[in-house]
């Protein structure tokens, strides 16, 4: 029985990587046109949402979203969520319909095909390089000036220990939100770790629960308030993850 499960997980993971590449190849001409200039980003974002939804559907995932406060059109936000799975990017694209830009680790740019578009449309950061971290602020400023939102996973990566409910938050997302006086949108992903974690032989099709919480305003706040806001957002997401864990999906 164990051998059958191992075979299923192996084939399922291979299928996942195939499904990452397949829609990119199908939409390749449109994707290339959409990144010719910055003005085409909204078109790229629309295609990226199709890509994300296609992967979730093809893997047997379906999502249920509870929205406490909706995003307003033509307004910039700092979107933050817990980070537990390779599907976090796809699910974020599926559930947030206002154009945003990911801030993500530069290592993902080395993924064939996916990385080509990733490094041309996202804000890349080398978390071990102080100069790279500083450059994130300049890149984010440009995107915010164009009316886009920014999405950061404030844990800074996926915890190696999967028993951790929510790892400590880094300051970057909250510093940016305060400096630009934009609201923070906390989002809790309840089941991504269970569905497709970074442990290779694990996961299964099924439900992905999402909660989009009330927005946290930063107007009038200063960097002295950064820790308090960070702790508030952390507690909102953490409490919801505990609730998810105590509720049968």
Estimate the helix proportion, in percent.
40-55%
| Assembly status | single chain
Order of helices and strands: HHHEEHEHEHEHEHEH
Number of helical regions = 9
By helix and strand content, what is the structural category?
A: alpha/beta
Q: Enumerate the strands of the largest sheet in spatial order, edge to edge or round the barrel.
A: 1-7-6-2-5-3-4
Shape: globular
Q: What distance separates the N and C termini?
A: 25 Å
Write down how many β-strands occur, each being a DSSP E stretch of 2 or more residues: 7
* Mean pLDDT reading: 91
Contiguous runs where pLDDT drops below 50 for at least 5 residues = none
> DSSP strand (E) fraction?
5-15%
Rg from Cα: 18 Å
Summary of the model, kept short:
The chain contains 9 helices and 7 strands. The two termini are 25 Å apart.
């Amino acid at each position: 029985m164990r051998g059958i499960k191992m075979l299923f997980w192996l084939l399922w993971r291979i299928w996942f990587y195939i499904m990452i590449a397949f829609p990119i190849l199908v939409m390749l001409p449109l994707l290339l046109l959409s990144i010719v200039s910055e003005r085409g980003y909204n078109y790229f974002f629309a295609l990226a949402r199709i890509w994300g939804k296609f992967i979730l559907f093809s893997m047997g995932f379906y999502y249920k979203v509870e929205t406490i406060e909706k995003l307003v059109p033509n307004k910039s936000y700092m979107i933050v969520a817990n980070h537990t799975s390779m599907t976090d990017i796809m699910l974020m694209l599926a559930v947030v319909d206002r154009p945003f830009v990911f801030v993500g680790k530069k290592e993902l740019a080395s993924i064939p095909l996916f990385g080509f578009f990733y490094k041309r449309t996202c804000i890349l950061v080398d978390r071990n390089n102080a100069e790279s971290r500083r450059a994130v602020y300049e890149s984010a400023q440009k995107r915010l000036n164009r009316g886009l939102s920014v999405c950061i996973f404030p844990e800074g990566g996926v915890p190696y220990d999967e028993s951790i409910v929510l790892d400590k938050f880094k300051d970057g997302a909250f510093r940016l939100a305060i400096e630009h006086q934009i609201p923070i949108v906390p989002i809790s992903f309840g089941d991504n770790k269970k569905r497709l974690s970074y442990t290779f032989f694990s996961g299964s099709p099924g439900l992905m629960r999402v909660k989009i919480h009330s927005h946290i305003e930063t107007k009038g706040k200063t960097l002295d308030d950064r820790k308090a806001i960070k702790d508030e957002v952390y507690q909102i997401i953490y409490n919801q993850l505990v609730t998810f864990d105590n509720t049968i999906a």
